[in-house]
Specification:
Number of domains: 1
Number of helices: 7
Shape: extended
Strand content: under 5%
Largest sheet: none
Radius of gyration: 26 Å
Helix content: over 70%
Length: about 190
């Protein structure tokens, strides 16, 4: 029964992956609804946490809520997908700048890596602001390829690979131990 579940998962993932690759902009609309709901919920949760802990830094939470609401609006209100790219790029630039400023003070390896992540966020934000339509297309195509890869693995690769490998190793070890002859050699 479990093998059929894996095959059904694989077939569904392959079909969804093909649909995403064939219709990336239509699928993006559906994906944007899920991401929008997630951003609104996550933004409100972060905002609630910031307010209850008396933390004054609420800009990121507000940006998450705004981007989530923009994603949930119908296309007739915001017909241009580039608006999402500009908002997402702006949020990345803001977050990256904040990290660069915050973590440059104390020079530890962890702070250097966090500042490096801030620099990467700034660079990705600038790319998204400059070319938002390519980023959206690349995002949906990447999701399609991930689904195709997952579906292929579920369908064509045996899921008990490590068990088979360990069984093979045990059989090899047991067969070689019988063939070994212990010989005492005296000089």
């Amino acid at each position: 029964m479990a093998m059929w579940n894996k095959k059904i998962d694989g077939i569904i993932a392959l079909v969804l992956g093909l649909i995403v690759l064939i219709f990336p902009f239509k699928v993006f609309t559906i994906l944007s609804l899920f991401v929008g709901v997630g951003l609104v919920i996550g933004g409100f949760k972060r905002l609630h946490f910031k307010i209850t802990t008396k933390n004054k830094r609420v800009v990121n939470s507000l940006l998450m809520i705004v981007i989530g609401i923009v994603l949930l609006l119908p296309n007739s209100i915001i017909p241009d997908r580039d608006v999402l790219g500009y908002l997402l790029g702006g949020m990345l630039i803001y977050n990256g700048s904040y990290r660069m400023i915050k973590y440059r003070k104390v020079q530890t390896p962890m702070n250097r890596s966090l500042a490096g992540a801030g620099l990467a966020a700034i660079l990705f934000g600038v790319v998204i602001v400059l070319v938002p339509e390519i980023v959206i297309l690349a995002f949906t195509i990447t999701i399609g390829l991930i689904l195709l890869g997952y579906g292929s693995i579920r369908l064509f690769v045996k899921m008990n690979f490590m068990g088979k490998f360990n069984e093979f190793r045990r059989s090899e070890n047991s067969s070689t131990s019988e063939d070994v002859v212990d010989v005492d050699v005296e000089n």
